[in-house]
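#data-curation
PF: Archiving a pair of folding outputs for the training set. Convention for this channel: one message per protein, sequence first, structure tokens after, nothing in between. First:
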Amino acid sequence: MAAHPTTSDEARPPAESIHPVDEKLPALKMATSGLQHVAAMYAGVVAPPLIVGAAVGLSGTELTFLTGACLFTAGLATFLQTLGIWKIGARLPFVNGVTFAGVAPMTAIVASTKDKSDALPIIFGAVIVAGLLGFLAAPVFCKAIRFFPPVVTGSVITLIGVSLLPVSFGWAQGPNPAAHDYGSAKYLALAGITLVLVLLLRRFTQGFVKQIAVLIGLVAGTLIAIPFGVTDFGPVAEADVVGFPTPFHFGAPQFQIAAILSMCVVMVVSMTESTADMLALGEIVERPSDEKTIEAGLRADTLGSALSPLFNGFMCSAFAQNIGLVAMTRIRSRFVVAVGGGFLVLMGLCPMAASLIAVVPRPVLGGAGVVLFGSVAASGIQTLVRAGLDKDNNVLIVAVSLAVGIIPITAPDFYHAFPQTVRIVLDSGISTGCVVAVLLNLLFNHIGKGRDAEDVTHPMEGGQEIAESAHPAPAH
């Protein structure tokens, strides 16, 4: 009997029908591209455990453990987001890791905890509750995204960067604020050298080297610091080659209302950022993110966050810098990013690899942190540029939310008269700035008829309005 070629042709879809997002590349390209994603976000994912661990007063060995745990949980969260299960995961090339938004509130929790050994369990308990509530709220949140326009998200992202910059300045001055040489010329010089190296690499290199400029700067700065006697290789010598992030290594989670409220605010911020990232990435990979995709992506973020404390990790969110990498390389496969998640898991299971970051002197981290945290603030400013700041209502929203958000930075004792439990929320400029931005956006842009959308008067001009007849609305 004659064969029916159409049968086999119908069973095998043409190659061009596979969307680039779902494309599986050759093994070598998958591996190298996955490593590139890890390199682009590595410094960002280890910075939060370094900040929080230092605030708690962890030893070098414990700091290595916490860093490895965050790498491990970042890999698991990346699997959830890229590969997905059931209705969980956007199935886009997202890298997930510890969100910067939670750093300031977590350090505030540490500062308010008398017994520092309880600080991490309290944080873990708050993250678990916030993650579970976020998971349940995902279907509603994706519908309420109109209340989080660029004017809100841009303000929040800017505050994240601004709130973290003082951390890098503190690192630049040395490892111990009580030491006699804290802020000495040698520490500031190391920070300056590292900063210059990163900037030169970003300016005069291309491709992969340019993407890992921060990582190269950290390595070079550490080597330069050896003659200064400020590089300690002890954590590497003490670390095991193979290890596993023992569940609840720092103690069983504790649940305190104030800490939970603070982390719930962070969860809202994180979900807002992730939604904005999904919308942006959907356009880049030419698979626009609809409501269903955003809901599934938020479920992955929140479930990953809820599970993360089980392995001693923190709240997870999408990493915006990797979106830029996708746009630059045009490699849109989600499986490439899943391979990167695999590398993160392997690094988390190798304490010796994780301990390498603990070797990096604080001044070197400070120099790189200026670029890292400053880039977060710049990303927020880029978002604000698209927010329609020609409208004076939006200018006021940004102005007041940023002003309220930087109070804990410029006046740390501003809320000293408030109860300690309340200060956990108020001392986080990111949390307070986010709340103010959302409320002001509701007041100016949603409640009542409001002012005409085309009013372009400056808020310092006493409310004088420019007639539409003089300035007709531009055509769109």
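PF: Second:
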Amino acid sequence: MSLNDDLTAVQRCLDDLVRSVSRLEQRVGAGGLEIRRVRTDADHLRESLALLRETTPVERSRPEMVPVPDAPYDSALWSDVDDEGLGARDRHAP
């Protein structure tokens, strides 16, 4: 798993936590000290993860290298192709 995948997984878990805390607030009430502390802690975790995402280096995937052979191409590949700007081989340019 890449670093970006791990951060995304943590973000999903934190989003689930925030939704669960919201449901809990509706059942218990938002006035108690305990639920306010849980809400504040969840918000701090989200902020900390956002800061962590900003400071982590971006992983760049390298494009796959395609080897190009040194041998000349088969001329049959180009038999029915128009030359750019000149038209077809058997016709004159306009």
